[in-house]
Amino acid sequence: MQTVKIVVTGPFSSGKTQFVQTISEIDVVDTERSITRAEEQIKEQTTVAMDFGRITVDEELVLYLFGTPGQRRFDFMWEVLSEGMLGFVVLLDSVRPETFREARDILATFRSYASVPYIVAANKQDLEDAWSPEDLRIALRIPESVKMVPCIATDRESVKHTLLELLYLVLEMMEDEP
Amino acid sequence: MALKGNLRDFSVVQLLNLINLARKTGTLRIGRNSKRANLCFRGGKLIHATLDGTGSQLVTALRESDLITEEQARTIRARAGERSDKELGLLLMNAGYVSQEEIVESVRQRVLANVYPLFTWTEGRFHFDSGTLEVDGVITVRVDLENLIMQGTRRLEEWERLQEELPDLEISLRFADRPQTNLRDINLNVQEWRVISFINPRNTIRQIAQYNNLSDFQIRKIVYGLLQAGLVEIVRPERKEPKRPEVPEAPKRVAPKKRRPDVKRNVIMRLIDRIREL
User: Fold this and answer.
1) Rounded Cα–Cα distance for residues A31 and A49 (Å)
2) H or E element: which one contains A176?
3) Domain ranges for chain A
4) What's the pLDDT at A30?
5) Residue B174 in contact with residue B198, Cβ under 8 Å?
6) Among A61, A135, A164, whose Cβ lies nearest the Cβ of B270?
């Protein structure tokens, strides 16, 4: 059986666990723990190792989705998770500008791990205070050449759209390769 | 769609850059402590700005540009009643006090004067209301943001230099016993005279700024000038430890580049079909 892997990354509380949960056919194997740092008590639990979701294509092919831990103190896991990935999704928290700088750092870090296609998804677009993807592109200085999509991690169709856009990029890259 | 946040995370320069590049129309509101700034933009150009809700911008602008005297300014304010700046401007033009060009240029200078202090704000909530413009009755101008950002950044650099020279505003000043400059060669403006009148070892620089309603930037600039001219000296209180700059993190180890795993095209096609079905 062949397995392929897509990594879902982004800053703390950007919606990575939700993204994987929304699309996974199995209950997500998460490794969440109660948060101890006062400054990060935006939610009760956080991912310390990874979220693990699965989409079975057929008996011979399975797609695994790995959500990375958001807190920087667990970033030693990032490189491990990025090993052998087909591509990655960077989730942005569109309502928390204080996370934009970190998102840019995470994007740069993952780009340095592997030369694979990636997509930037502006999550939480259903919230009133969400910055639009166009504004986020300027704010984070993301070049036009990088694909960016609006996203609502709680909405299955939106998550499907994000993953499909990433897979289309993989296809495009394959066509460009000799 | 609203843009909300804190200047801690997204600076004034970044905000102006975003508004410029996205050619936005709307009102940017920034609040820091008790201070409030409103900036209006049309198609990515600055058209109006207020700081702390200054009343008639026009009268203040004309006075600051020396186009009217203080007495004329008082008279116009007293008689203006409910008239908007636009109506007031027309009256003044028809009465032959000022020309249209003079009005536009003085309002432009006032607008810029309201925006430049914002470049030094590193903290404060901001909110951009897209499509909302509160400019009824206001004389608007059209300021390119590229130039504004460049000028503001230069002022910021100047502000940073001044802050380095005068990091602490809680210190006091005294007149130099032997001024290094010939006093006859010195010309002081009104603001400098006002500051001079408060110089006393009992008054801190911050108190002098408060008495004269001067910003940190303005008082630093004036005091720096007086210090450079050798007119005043600093009365140093007990020495404080300088604030240590943050030590930058060591560069991250960058792993060697890996390529995408060797996956065949039909695998991707099967993945796409499966996800579409979900």
Assistant:
1) 6
2) helix A156-176
3) 2-176
4) 62
5) no
6) A61
Mark yes or no for CB contact B255/A116 under 8 Å: no
- CA angle in degrees (0–180, nearest 5) for B163-B124-B134: 120
What are the φ and ψ backbone dihedral angles of B20, each rounded to 5 degrees? -65, -50
Encode pLDDT of B220-234 as tens digits.
989 988 888 778 888
What is the four-CA torsion angle of A105, A109, A111, A114, rounded to 10 degrees?
-170
CB-CB under 8 Å, B270 with A58: yes
CB proximity B272 to A under 8 Å: yes
Contact A87 B271 (CB under 8 A): no
Q: Can you spell out the DSSP letters for B237-263?
A: -S--PPPPPPPPPPPPPPPPPEEPP--
Q: Which fold has domain A2-176?
A: Rossmann fold (3.40.50)
Residue B1 at interface with chain A, using a CB cutoff of 8 Å: yes
> Chain B residue with minimal CA distance to A60?
B267
Q: How many CB atoms lie within 10 A of CB B179?
A: 14
Residue ranges covered by each domain of chain B = 3-162, 166-235
Separation of alpha carbons A84 and A76, rounded Å: 16
Q: Which residues pair with A30 in a beta bridge?
A: A51
For residues B25 and B42, the answer to whether their CB atoms sit within 8 Å is: yes
AA letter at B239: R
The whole-angstrom separation of Cα B166 and Cα B160 is 10
Residue A160 to residue B18: CA distance in whole angstroms:
30
Give CA–CA dist B62/B49, Å, rounded.
Answer: 16
Instruction: Give this prediction's pTM.
Output: 0.70
Compute CA distances B114 → B5, B36, B109, B127, whole Å.
Answer: 21, 11, 9, 17
A61 vs B22, B267, B275: nearest CB:
B267
Kindly determine whether residue B8 and residue A98, on different chains, have CB atoms separated by under 8 Å: yes
Contact flag B265-A171 (C-beta cutoff 8 Å): yes
**Residues B98-156: pLDDT tens digits?**
999 999 999 999 999 899 989 989 899 999 999 889 888 899 999 999 999 999 988 88
* Fold type of domain B166-235: Arc Repressor Mutant, subunit A (1.10.10)
Beta strand ranges found along B22-98 (DSSP E): 26-32, 35-42, 45-51
Round to whole Å and give the CA distance between B220 and B206: 9
Neighbours of B204 (CB within 10 A): 18
